[in-house]
Amino acid sequence: MDDLVTDDKRRPDSADRRLMAVNEANWDARTPVHTASDFYGLADDAQALDPARWFAPYEWEDLGELAGRELVHLQCHLGTETLVLAGKGARATGLDLSGASVAAARELAARQESGPMAGTRYVQANVYDAVETLGEARFDVVYTGKGALCYLPDLDRWAAVVAGLLRPGGMLYLAEFHPLLNSFGPTPTAEAGTPLVLRHDYLAGRGAIRRDATYTYTDGPPVEGATESVEWMHGLGEVVTALTGAGLVIELLREDEELPFPRWPEMVRTESGRWRLPDSAPRIPLLFALRARRPAA
C-alpha cells in the first residue's frame, strides 16, 4: 500500500500552499478570541474537557476501546477533543496548521499535571506534511473533523496522508459537518422567520471560496488582523471516493440530525444535550461520521 501514499500524492501545489497560508494567518488571529470564549470554556477544565461537550455517544461506540492506542488528531485547533481522547486512555498527538492554536493547546495540556491527559503532545504542521513532520510515527487511530475538511483543497491528497499515518489495521474516524449543512443558509422573511434555503454549493468544482468575516463561530470580540479565510466544498461522495482511492476500506457511515451547538436560532435542544432542527422542519443530516480502516495486509 505504500505506493499509494508517495510524496507527490500527499503534497499540495504552491498555489494551494499560498491559500492555506491565508488560513494559517486567520486561525492565528481567531485563536485569542476562541481561548477567551464561553464556547470553548477554557477557564474551567471540567467544562472545556467534558466529553459530552464535544462527542456524541455513538462516537465512543464507533471508536471502541482507546486505552493504550496511538492516536493522532488532525486539525486539532485548541486541542480540547485531543485531550478528551487522551482521557479515554489514548496516547494522543494533536496536529494543527496554526502556531497560535498549538501554543494554546499546549498551555491547556500543561494544566493536566497527572492522569492520562498529561502526556498529550501537539505539533504545528500543515496536514499535508503530517507524515514527514511526525517522522516514523504510525498510528492505530487517526481522528479528525467537525470543521476540518472545508479547509483542505484536495481530498485525494488528504486521504493519502491519512493512509500514510495509519499502521496496517489502523482506522480513520471522521466526524464532520455534513456538506448539506454547509449548503444551507437562512433567508429572513416577514412571514416565516428564517427558513433554510440552499444558498451554497454542495459539490466541489468551483475552486476556492474566499470569506472575510470579522466575527467567528464563537462568542467574543471581533477578530483583529487577518480576517480572510479560504474554504473548499466537498460532497459526501468525494470524501468516500478519496478514502477508498487511498486503499482504505469504509466500515461505517452515519448521518446525524444533531449538532453539538445550535447553528441556527430555531434549533432545539435534545435529551442528549445536542441540537437539532424543530419538528416543523424536514429531517436532514447535519453531521456525518465515517470509520475507515487500512487493511491489515
Features:
297 residues; Rossmann fold; 13 strands; 23% strand; two-stranded antiparallel sheet; alpha/beta
Structural description of this entry:
With 297 residues, the protein is an alpha/beta fold. The chain has a single domain, classed as Rossmann fold (3-Layer(aba) Sandwich). Helices cover 31% and strands 23% of the residues. The chain has eleven helices and 13 strands. It has helices at residues 7-10, 14-35, 45-48, 51-54, 57-63, 80-87, 99-110, 130-134, 155-165, 179-183, 236-245; strands spanning 70-74, 91-96, 121-124, 139-145, 166-177, 184-186, 196-198, 209-212, 228-231, 249-256, 268-269, 275-276, 287-293. It has a seven-stranded mixed sheet, sandwiched between helices. It has a two-stranded antiparallel sheet with strand order 6-7. Strand 4 (139-145), helix 9 (155-165) and strand 5 form a beta-alpha-beta unit. Helix 2 (14-35) crosses helix 7 (99-110). It is globular and about 50 Å long. The N and C termini lie close together (9 Å). Residues 1-6 have low confidence and may be disordered.
